[in-house]
Write a structure and sequence with these properties.
Chain B: Keywords: Cell membrane, Membrane, Transmembrane, Transmembrane helix, Transport. The complex is a heterodimer of chains A (536) and B (308). With 536 residues, chain A is an alpha+beta fold. Chain A has 16 helices and 21 strands. In chain A, strands 11, 12, 13, 16, 17, 18 and 19 form a 7-stranded mixed β-sheet that branches. In chain A, helix 9 runs antiparallel to helix 11 and helix 15 packs antiparallel against helix 16. In chain B, helix 4 crosses helix 7 and helix 11 runs antiparallel to helix 12. The chains are: A alpha+beta (536), B mainly alpha (308).
Chain lengths: 536, 308
């Protein structure tokens, strides 16, 4: 006993000094003026803050605050020049000559055209192993180089001098400015990256060129960024300091918000949404993505288009969003979500629905299909989804509706995420859940999903007319004309229905009423640079 | 000689664990690079597989891994593109270990006291109260207890922070939540062990010799009753030190507990192997320390390599 007591005592003696050492960082904020600081929840450690390697929106959230590309987005979500001062397009619409403005890295180095050339070639370098390199395939020679079939010297980006960048594309690309605002096109500081291969892992070695610079990074705990005094547009940045906490548990971050430890959270536990709805600090914004079920058109009964249409007509989407998912989602009767600005207004509002839900019509279609195929009974249907409480509830809802409305018995099955991806990639499904988010706000990244040669397209649906319309749209410079062709492509897709759209995603936020000016883009987490804390 | 032999056994154990883990994890379907957000052209996937040596045949991958392991290099993480496995563990282990030590101390100090008091008051009110508490402690899972603690101590009464990491106050609730179940187990162990020891003849002899009750309890009772409890402490310490998924998730602790689980879902092979090996090493070391402490508590036990 004496010895074990002694042991415990020793342990206490060892621990206590350490503990008291950690407890001294109480922040005494200045009196009078409100300190311009905000603490938000990033949910998890960003896997990479290297623009060439980041593939997720959590990393993207931080990257877009600490880095900046040739183009950037303003408060209204419009793409505007960032580091580019001037951009000239050649007559054949394939060569851009870009003049850089005077801008500096957070370590004081000037941002040069050479940094861009280096960065773009770096992400395309096969050894970098970037999974977003294909977003740069619009550049001449880029795809060949990335796939190991071409030389780095043939990649269409050249630094003419310190301030001038020449970019050559494979073909005219109407939405190139949107791409330039995307993080895969952001620059990194050549000498920093070449000097230290772990430059991006810690706050003190990470050099960036955006509105903020990292001041501390405690892995898996928090990341702090402070306003970058070297940023060219610093006058227009109102928020001085942003802290991203990494709290993963929904109930926990909700309670941290409620107790004032967090000022903004980017999702809520589903069960508290009804009680928060209508409160001043609660916000639902559309999210640029679609929740859907894919049909495998090579597997019966979905070989018959009438069956696919019948399934689409037989479910009640509004009932799913109102009673099951309950996060203010919009029922989807098309593929491209709301949020794309076109010369004629919102892309989706121009044609909101491709069909109306109609049980009678659905029954009729199903009967016709059975006769055409000579089926007495519809072949058994299995619906699979990746294991999650929410997907399960929605799948059960769909199962019930198909049974009630069409008399079709659907069996449900679920698999853990990576196994599920493996199964669907191999085409071992009849009907499978999937979600798709547009990485930039344009119909193209959405509609590309069902291209015949897209690795995402697991449905085996290949349509030449669709593919050629999509290819045609990419070469059109005139925005109105381009949108028209994209509408035509979507018409083809929605005629054949290799999938069943269910709803367009939303995001739910709680933002403390102490803050004004937080911007909520449709496909990103909130932009905080223009936010202002107005009271304590 | 004993130490050398023991060390050799440890290395063999780790090698066997590594090999088994390697085989099992590669037999799970799924690909570390699969995701819904970016299904990639085959050429690009090849670039990425090559970066992590996943394009090599299995035996080559295995040999490469063992070669790196021999230099204590656990390799890169596929998920975290910036930190390798050694760094992940080095960054996360201090937080997990601090919580682990605190909860171990809480569990042992209070568990032993509770167990001893209960045993000495056998079938009395204190005994029933202590054992009722122990049963509740064992049966309430930490994912229920933790939110309850947060609700009362952090949200309703505002005494402690809800979660996250920074000051010592942040460690109080997770340590308590982590300690409750082991505390209850230790208490029950200690109680039954004490009861058994107190019925032994040597205790009766000591009593007959006229020793004071306190003297008997401390010198003969507790000391002998501790032996079965100590064998339980080894694995317990290993589990507590390496963090737990549930507590770390609920309290947003920057520890390594979550990597044990997340790495499997992500098919992050080097992290699966690295965390498994790290946990095995800690477990083996604590078991070794337990063996040594037997010797201290009970001089009859000799450390010998015979029959080991």
């Amino acid at each position: 006993m004496k010895k074990s007591l002694l042991m415990s005592l020793m342990m206490v003696l060892v621990i206590v000094p350490f503990l008291s050492a950690c407890s001294g960082d109480e922040d005494a904020s200045g009196d009078g003026e409100v300190a311009q600081e905000i603490t938000v929840n990033a949910s998890s450690e960003p896997p990479s803050l290297d623009p060439a390697l980041a593939t997720d929106t959590t990393s993207g959230w931080v990257i877009e605050h600490v880095f900046e590309g040739l183009y950037t987005k303003n408060k209204d979500g419009e793409v505007v020049p960032g580091l580019a001062e001037k951009m000239e397009l050649s007559d054949d619409k394939k060569v851009y000559t870009i003049t850089l403005r005077d801008a500096k890295w957070s370590n004081g180095d000037p941002v040069t055209a050479e940094d861009f050339e280096y960065s773009w070639k770096r992400i395309l370098n096969p050894e970098t192993g970037s999974s977003f390199a294909f977003y740069l395939y619009y550049l001449k020679g880029a795809e060949e180089y990335n796939k190991g079939k071409g030389s780095v010297d043939d990649v269409g980006v050249t630094a003419v001098d310190d301030k001038t960048l020449k970019v050559e594309l494979n073909s005219p690309t109407g939405f190139f400015e949107k791409l330039l605002a995307f993080w895969s096109y952001y620059p990194v500081n050549k000498s920093v990256v070449e000097g230290n291969k772990n430059w991006v892992a810690e706050a003190d070695t990470l050099v960036s060129n955006g509105a903020y610079k990292l001041s501390s990074w405690e892995h898996d705990n928090q990341l702090v960024a402070e306003k970058n005094d070297n940023y060219w547009d610093k006058e227009n940045i109102s928020m001085e300091k942003i802290t991203w906490k990494m709290v993963n548990d929904a109930t926990t971050y909700y309670q941290m918000y409620k107790s004032g430890e967090l000022d903004l959270i980017t999702s809520l536990p589903v069960d508290v949404i009804p009680q928060e709805e209508g409160n001043e600090d609660f916000k639902i914004t559309p999210y640029f993505g679609t929740y859907m079920y894919m049909f495998n058109v090579d597997k019966e009964p979905f070989t018959n288009p009438k069956v696919r249409r019948a399934f689409n007509l037989a479910i009640d989407r509004a009932s799913i969003t109102e009673n099951i998912s309950q996060s203010g989602e919009k029922p989807a009767k098309a593929f491209v979500p709301y949020g794309v600005e076109t010369p004629e207004g919102d892309f989706r509002e121009q044609k909101e629905a491709y069909f109306e839900e109609n049980v009678e019509e659905a029954k009729k279609l199903l009967e016709e299909a059975k006769q055409e195929e000579g089926w007495d009974e519809l072949p058994a249907v299995e619906l699979i989804y990746n294991t999650s409480e929410n997907h399960k509830k929605i799948a059960e809802g769909v199962q019930e509706m198909l049974k009630q409305n069409l008399g079709v018995e659907v069996t449900l099955n679920n698999q853990e995420w990576k196994t599920y991806l493996d199964t669907t990639d191999q085409g071992n499904f009849q009907m499978a859940r999937m979600g798709w988010i547009g990485i930039y706000v344009d119909p193209t990244p959405i509609l590309d999903y069902y291209l015949g040669d897209s690795p995402n397209n697991r449905t085996n649906w290949v349509n030449e007319k669709y593919d050629s319309l999509m290819a045609k749209s990419k070469g059109i410079q005139d925005e109105a004309e381009r949108m028209k062709v994209l509408h035509e492509a979507e018409d083809v897709l929605m005629e054949d229905l290799p999938f069943m759209p269910v709803y367009y995603y939303t995001n739910n936020y709680l933002t403390s009423t102490d803050y004004e000016g937080v911007v909520y883009p449709v496909n990103r987490y909130p932009n905080l640079r223009w936010a202002k804390k107005v009271s304590n | 000689m004993y130490i050398i032999k023991r060390l050799f056994t440890m290395l063999v154990t780790i090698w066997v664990i590594t090999t088994l883990t390697f085989i099992i994890m590669h037999s799970i379907p799924g690909d570390p690079f699969a995701s819904d957000a970016d299904v990639l052209p085959e050429e690009v996937l090849e670039n990425m597989r090559a970066k992590f040596n996943l394009d090599e045949p299995m035996p080559v991958q295995y040999a490469l891994y063992l070669k790196n392991l021999a230099t204590l290099d656990l390799g890169p993480s596929i998920q975290s593109k910036t930190r390798d496995v050694n760094t992940l563990i080095a960054d996360g282990f201090p937080a997990s270990a601090l919580l682990g030590i605190q909860s171990l101390v809480i569990a042992l100090v209070f568990g032993l006291i509770l167990g001893i008091i209960a045993a000495l008051n056998r079938n009395g009110i204190i005994d029933y109260a202590a054992m009722a508490f122990a049963i509740i402690g064992i049966s309430i899972p930490s994912f229920i207890l933790a939110p309850l603690l947060i609700k009362y101590f952090a949200v309703d009464w505002g005494l402690l922070p809800v979660a996250s990491w920074g000051t010592w106050l942040h460690t109080v609730l997770p340590s308590v939540a982590l300690a409750t179940a082991p505390l209850a187990i230790v208490a029950r162990f200690m109680r039954s062990s004490m009861l058994e020891v107190m019925n032994q003849n040597y205790i009766k002899t000591a009593d007959a010799k006229g020793l004071s009750t306190t003297g008997i309890v401390i010198k003969h009772g507790i000391r002998n009753a501790l032996i079965p409890v100590i064998s339980f402490i080894g694995p317990l310490a290993a589990f507590l030190l390496t963090g737990t998924f549930v507590i770390e998730k609920i309290f947003a602790i920057p520890g390594i507990g979550k990597y044990f689980v997340d790495s499997i879902f992500n098919r992050d092979y080097p992290v699966i192997l690295g965390t498994t090996i790290f946990f095995s090493a800690i477990l083996i070391i604590t078991l070794f320390l337990v063996d040594i402490s037997y010797r201290i508590v009970d001089p009859r036990i000799k450390l010998s390599s015979k029959g080991d």
